[in-house]
Amino acid sequence: MEADITSGIVVGHDGSRASGAVVRRAGDLAKRLGVTLHVVRVWNLATAPRPDSMVGGYVPPFAEFEQAVVADLKDDCAAAGLGDDVEIQLYALRGQATECLITAAAHAEMLVVGARGAGGFKGLRFGSTATQVVRHSPVPVLVVPNFSH
User: Fold this and answer.
1) Tell me: the pLDDT tens digits for 68-111?
2) CB-based contacts of 116: which residues, under 8 Å, 6+ apart?
3) Which three-class secondary structure state does DSSP give residue 48?
4) How far is CA 148 from CA 17, 82, 117, in A?
5) Cβ distance 112 to 142 under 8 Å?
6) Does residue 102 contact residue 134 with C-beta atoms inside 8 Å?
7) What is the C-alpha separation between 79 and 93, in angstroms, rounded?
8) CB of 40 within 8 A of CB of 100?
């Protein structure tokens, strides 16, 4: 899937519980600014949910993994409690998180990420993805703190 994003707010959702709060914060901003919220989940074969067609030794094509990722992301965004008045686009991008997020947000107004996500270690203020995004993003970055730890 390509992310041809030319405006709005891009937010990363890594599937962690903390990502719901990050998406809500980004959704609030998108609503106030009257722009589209682009929710991005970066995946690889190790992190993607298994498509229903994956049985026995059959490994489905990437497109089926991508569909499973989008379905999972749709459920997560619904659980985040975004209002119906926020225009949302969902993207499943295969690759490395930092690179995919920065590329997806290159022409957006802002990129929003969580301070620490699924791979975080207790005691770290920022996760590696947040740190790299802040260093290399061509657009302003909002890092949403994770208060659940």
Assistant:
1) 999 999 999 999 888 788 999 999 999 999 999 999 999 999 99
2) 18, 124, 126, 127, 130, 146, 149
3) coil
4) 9, 20, 11
5) yes
6) no
7) 21
8) yes
Contacts with 15 (C-beta within 8 Å, 6 or more apart), sequence order? 41, 47, 72, 76, 118
Tokens representing residue 149 in the block: 């730890």
Tokens of 35: 């722009």
Cα–Cα distance between 108 and 52 in angstroms, integer?
A: 34
Question: DSSP assignment of 59-97, as one string?
Answer: ---HHHHHHHHHHHHHHHHHHTT--TTS-EEEEEEES-H
Q: Which two tokens stand for residue 134?
A: 């802040």
pLDDT single digits (tens) 4-31: 899 999 999 998 888 999 999 999 999 9
- Tell me the two tokens of residue 53: 């067609």
Contact 111, 140 (CB under 8 A): yes
> Would you tell me the crossing angle of helices 97-104 and 128-136 to the nearest 10 degrees?
40
